Every structure is written in structure tokens, then in C-alpha cells.
Amino acid sequence: MRLANKTILITAAGQGIGRASAIACAAQGAKVIATDRDDSLLAGLDMETHALDVTSQADIAALAAKLPDLDGLFNCAGYVANGTVLDVTDHDWDFSFELNVKSMLRMCRAFVPGMLRQSGRAGTASLLNMASMASSIKGFPNRAAYGATKAAVIGLTKAIAADYVTTGLRANALCPGTVDTPSLRGRIAASSDPVQAEKDFIARQPMGRLALTDDITPMVLFLLSDESKFVSGQACLVDGGVTI
Ligand code: NAD
């Protein structure tokens, strides 16, 4: 029970890495609060669930007012906009920053005060922000907006880590390689040649396969638990060796 007595909120917990993380954290004894914009996706999770659109500061504040102080917060929500700098639209650029980066600011405004109280009581609290290996640590084609946002997540995380390093509140960024999730399947299906698109995603993974969500959750558990209490401000790669 690596997360016994921990209260952990996860955004975008309806599917993919967020859902797998919610299940893994609960299995390690955490009281998990699983949230997603689409609350129908939260069905079947054996834990407290709430609809939460992380682009709404009002909805975030309303939920925070109902919840206890958190030991852990995993800001997982994010999405991929395709395109080079020549074809990314203003809408996709702005919405990428709105969802992938500013939602983290909104969540921090609402929950960091309670996490600081909790780290004062318990000695440690952990903030985990979802970045990515792709296009922030290593460049990939057609990811101008996505790469810019995920690099921004790493910068934001380091700034938070520096601000609170003496308080017991730690902040780290998670940088997965390509993970087999519903949105990845959707991007493969939406491509002009889905068979080739899947081969291309696998080809950029030197281990010859996509990550499963269960390849990512051990790092989530480590970073949200006190096992990582001497780790802060890091961009933690779980990428199957892409960046060797
Ligand atoms: P996914 O993209 O399949 O699911 C995303 C979830 O986010 C959905 O349940 C959706 O309802 C929810 N969501 C969308 N907008 C929301 C909003 N405004 N508020 C709250 N929830 C919202 O899941 P995934 O592929 O595991 O991606 C999750 C995160 O992991 C994203 O930040 C993504 O950038 C990052 N990531 C994914 C991969 C990958 O290969 N899948 C790799 C690196 C990083």
C-alpha cells in the first residue's frame, strides 16, 4: 500500500493514462478522486468521481471547495493538435495552450494552497503534470503546437518545484513515449493510411512496440508516493528508449 492515507485527484481519468493511473493509485491504497470532462467515461471506476472540465476556472473552484486538502494532484488532461508552424491554426495553437498548459495553472490556483497545508502536516505532497517525450524532449514532425505546450509544461513544473522546494510540496513532469490509448487509436484511424500510421508510430519506438498504460503507471505511483520524496523539478521519461 504505497499510497496509504493519500488523497489524490486525477484529471482526464476517464480513459487512457489517467484512467489506468486512477486504478493503479487506488490499488495502492490512495483515496482517489477521478475526474473527467466526460463523466460517462468515469463509469465503472470504484472510487469518488466528478465531472470536471479543466478549462473552466469556475468549475475547478467549485469542486475544490467541496474537497479535502490533497496529498497528490495528477494534471493529466491534454490533447494533440497536428501541424507544422506553417499550417497550425490560431485556434489549435490557442486551444492547445488553453488545455495543455493553462488548465494546470487553473488547477494549481485551486489546489496548491491545500497541498501546501497538507505538506506542512504530512511532510510531503506531490504535483504531477503530464508533459510528453514527443516534441518537447525530442522533436517530431507536425507537432508545433503540441511540442510547444508540452515543453511549457516542463518549464511550469520546474518553476513550481523551485517556488515550493522548501515546503515539502514537490512538482514533477511525466514524459511518456507513444502510449496505446483511445486518442492514439483515434489519430491512427483518422489518418489517410491507418495501417501505415500505426507502423510509423511503432517504428519510432526502438523497443518495437507502443507503450501500454501499465508501462507508465509505475512512474506515476513512484512520483505520487513518498518513495520519490527527494525528487522534484524533473521531467521523468518513460519512453521505451526513444531518447537513448
Ligand atoms: P486520451 O487522450 O485517450 O484521453 C483523454 C481524456 O481527457 C479523455 O477522457 C477526455 O474526456 C479528457 N479530457 C479532454 N478534455 C478535457 C477537459 N477539458 N477537461 C477534463 N478532461 C478532458 O488519453 P491519453 O492518450 O492517455 O492522454 C492523456 C495525457 O497524456 C494527455 O495530456 C496527453 O498529451 C498525454 N500523453 C499521451 C501520450 C500517448 O501516446 N497517448 C504520450 C505522451 C503524453
Write structural notes for this entry.
With 244 residues, the chain is an alpha/beta fold. The chain has a single domain (7-238), classed as 3-Layer(aba) Sandwich (Rossmann fold). The protein is built from seven helices and seven strands, in the order βαββαβαβαβαααβ. The chain has a seven-stranded parallel β-sheet with strand order 3-2-1-4-5-6-7, sandwiched between helices. Nicotinamide-adenine-dinucleotide binds at residues 11-12, 14-18, 36-38, 41, 52-55, 76-78, 99, 130, 132, 176, 178-179, 181-184.
Order of helices and strands: EHEEHEHEHEHHHE
Instruction: Report the CATH C-level class.
Output: Alpha Beta
**Low-confidence residue ranges:** none
Q: What is the radius of gyration computed over CA atoms, rounded to a whole number of angstroms?
A: 17 Å
Write down how many β-strands occur, each being a DSSP E stretch of 2 or more residues.
7
The CATH architecture term is 3-Layer(aba) Sandwich
Domain count: the total is: 1
Strand order of the largest sheet: 3-2-1-4-5-6-7
Each distinct ligand: nicotinamide-adenine-dinucleotide
Q: What is the fold named in CATH at topology level?
A: Rossmann fold
Shape: globular
Mean pLDDT: 97
Distance between the termini: 33 Å
| Beta-strand percent range | 5-15%
Instruction: Classify the helix fraction into a percent range.
Output: 40-55%
The profile of the biggest β sheet is:
7 strands, parallel
Relevant CATH superfamily: NAD(P)-binding Rossmann-like Domain
| Class from secondary-structure proportions | alpha/beta
Give the helix tally. Answer: 7
